Amino acid sequence: MEALSVLLPVFGVFIPALILPGPDFVGVVRSSMTRGTRAGLLTTLGVSIGLGMYATLSLLGLSAVLVKFQWLTWAVRVLGGTYLAWLGIRLLLAKPVAIGQQPQGAVRGNALLFGFIVTLTNPKAIVLFASVFATAVTASTPVWLMVLMIALVVASGLIWYSIVALFMSSAPVMRRFQHARHWIERVAGASFVLIGGRIIADARNPVSP
Description:
By secondary structure, the chain is mainly alpha-helical. The chain contains 9 helices and no strands.
């Protein structure tokens, strides 16, 4: 009963936030539609590992650090937003390639690492975990419950983004968009630029305890 009183409100906020499109969603869609199912699932794994890392840090006191050192929150948001905007610009400037070839530059590389870095540099994820997860536990919260919360975060990320990856890389979707690969990269790039710009614009908003 005590576990439910912690899990229900926390995941009642986390699950909708997970489903709403953001940098992680754009990253998984972009990998799936331009590089196929394997890349989409590897990006999903990278995103889920990043979410699990943030959940762990939040339960270890990340919230208290961000509240005490607001300049650190500002720095994380600015750096994260700048990285996402830079990645978006690289995607926008990427040259078209033939179907079956791998994209060059910033859009090439390890799909798992790509997913992890996108999540790692997403300040919205930091604030979500710091403001929701960390404040839901107390000194009396058992370790097993915190471990369960982290496991549920990773599992939720894996399930949701695997569904997204499998759908976006499915044969009907790939056939429909097989000649629009470059435009998919551009849409993803524009999304990263807009999200990064919004994060930078909100950088001065404080994190509430």
